[in-house]
Write a structure and sequence with these properties.
Layout: H1 6-9, H2 11-17, E1 41-55, E2 71-85, E3 89-102, E4 110-122, E5 127-138, E6 156-168, E7 173-186, H3 189-192, E8 199-211, E9 216-229, E10 236-248, E11 253-264, E12 273-286, E13 289-301, E14 308-322, E15 325-341, E16 351-365, E17 368-380, E18 387-400, E19 403-405
Antiparallel strand pairs: 1-2, 1-18, 1-19, 2-3, 3-4, 4-5, 5-6, 6-7, 7-8, 8-9, 9-10, 10-11, 11-12, 12-13, 13-14, 14-15, 15-16, 16-17, 17-18
Length: 406
């Protein structure tokens, strides 16, 4: 039996890579219904859903705007997943789209689309490799899961890909190394260039773990991203080195943490800087109940105003059944980000962002969900008139049924 699974070996890389993730996501509902266990071979899972939402600020205008910004939005969202499970190979491909139909502001009607592919393979008992890619076309920047970007009703395209290998050096130690590329582009880039620039990151990440006991593993993580922001003549080089540990507190609780230093190399826009790099994640998984709380602190490039930011991020999530039955459930999440400019020579602004959502759902069968949801988006530049608030409340119905392919 393998001492280290691939998932354990890449735990440090996954945690570290979240500092620069460009994934787009919109958590107005919890997604597709509970998936049935997938056996070996191919499985095709079609999905279709509809929703009705009240949006208090469809244009993402700042506070004090007198123009009406509220509207009702009807959505239909098709999707499909194709997955393969083999003895040594796991492959998942998926597409999810959502057509947004505004009742009053019909000029805002558009598609929100996402595609992904994820491949993992165990070549030997010790050697495994993985590769994945994500593409998203989204209608507004508050759907981008990345710090330092002002919220505007501006379309964006995000793309990221990552590949790496994991190798068990011995029965107690493993190392994982990966390379990634991430890119973001904004529509009408010339009009919004002062505060929505875009750019790309190329990054290498390495994680080493040594199993000290059956519950505790320790080691180190190192990342080296090269970031290029449109409009900046030089790249930003950021290096992060952390001592790391993963601890299984109990069968249900687990803790992952890292502490070290982050170094920003000097260029024409900023002097060199060194600061603390911190992260921790506490997770609980037991049957249908889950909980997590996490904290991140590091430096990230600013694809909004340009330059680099010091990023602090707190996330909390909780999901549990209701009424002592598996058919009713509730799901809640909160993410808070504090981005402080490190390059004052540029016209940067600090950003404080808060995203929350709450869901109460009913799953009468494992192929259908009916949910009521509430989501709030809030951001401030700490300047007069620089506050954006957006509240969305609505209901959705989603159906999904896996089908085995011969």
């Amino acid at each position: 039996m393998k001492t280290f699974t691939l998932a354990l070996a890449i735990a440090g890389v996954t945690a570290l890579s979240t500092l620069g993730a460009l994934h787009a996501q919109e958590r107005l509902g919890s997604g597709t219904p509970t998936e049935e266990p997938k056996g070996p071979g191919w499985t095709f899972t079609p999905t279709i859903g509809v929703s009705e939402t009240y949006d208090s600020n469809v244009s993402l205008f700042g506070q004090g705007t007198t123009a009406p910004t509220a509207d009702y939005v009807s959505s239909v969202f098709p999707g499909a997943d194709l997955s393969y499970g083999g003895r040594h190979t796991r492959l998942t491909m998926g597409y999810a789209g959502s057509f947004l139909n505004y009742n009053t502001f019909s000029e805002l009607n558009r598609w929100d689309q996402r595609a992904r592919i994820d491949l993992k393979r165990d070549e030997t008992a010790r050697l495994g490799w993985f590769a994945n890619a994500n593409l998203a076309l989204i209608p507004s920047t508050d759907l981008i899961d990345f710090g330092g970007i002002p919220y505007r009703h501006v379309g964006a395209k995000t793309f990221d890909m990552r590949g790496g290998v994991s190798y068990e050096l011995s029965a107690r130690s493993a190392i994982t190394s990966s390379l990634s590329y991430q890119d973001i582009e904004f529509q009408n880039s010339e009009t919004f260039r002062p505060f929505l620039r875009g750019g790309h990151i190329a990054e290498s990440l390495t994680a080493y773990r040594y199993r000290l006991t059956s519950r505790l593993s320790a080691g180190g993580d190192y990342s080296y991203p090269l970031a290029s922001v449109l409009g900046d003549s030089e790249r930003f080089n950021i290096q992060t080195a952390e001592a790391a540990m993963d601890y299984q507190l109990s069968p249900a609780w687990s803790l992952s943490a890292g502490a070290g230093v982050v170094y920003l190399q000097a260029n024409a826009f900023t002097t060199s800087r060194t600061g603390p790099a911190l992260r921790f994640t506490l997770n609980r998984h037991q049957e249908r109940t889950s909980f997590h709380v996490g904290y991140l602190r590091s430096y990230i490039p600013s694809f909004g105003f340009g330059g680099t930011n010091q990023n602090k991020e707190i996330s909390v999530g909780f999901r549990t059944p209701l009424f002592h039955t598996q058919h009713f459930y509730t799901d809640h999440s909160l993410v808070f980000r504090d981005d402080t400019p490190l390059t004052p020579s540029l016209e940067q602004l600090p950003l404080r962002s808060l995203l929350t959502y709450s869901i109460v759902g009913w799953e009468p069968q494992n192929w259908v969900r009916i949910e009521a949801f509430y989501a709030r988006t809030q951001q401030s530049t700490l300047r007069p008139g620089g506050e954006v608030d957006r509240n969305r409340v609505g209901v959705q119905i989603v159906t999904s049924k896996p089908m085995r392919l011969q």
